[in-house]
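TL;DR need structure tokens for one chain.
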Amino acid sequence: MKAKTLDRMFDAGEDITEHLDLSKARRVGNEAKRVNVDFPVWMVKSLDREAQRLGVARQSLIKLWLADRLEQTVASGKR
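>> reply
TL;DR here they are.
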């Protein structure tokens, strides 16, 4: 099938999923990128206490908090 035909079907609201290989689908911009951050010991201990209280890993807690803060920043127009 030509791309123009697929585009036309999509634009018309037709279901095109049977023409796609979803096993190779990826969300753009959602790839992981490893970063290293040094925290003072008191901060790591506090993070660990909060993570344990919530029943999540330290890394998950940090990612959740950062995501929340970034969403707030974008929502307030400070970006």
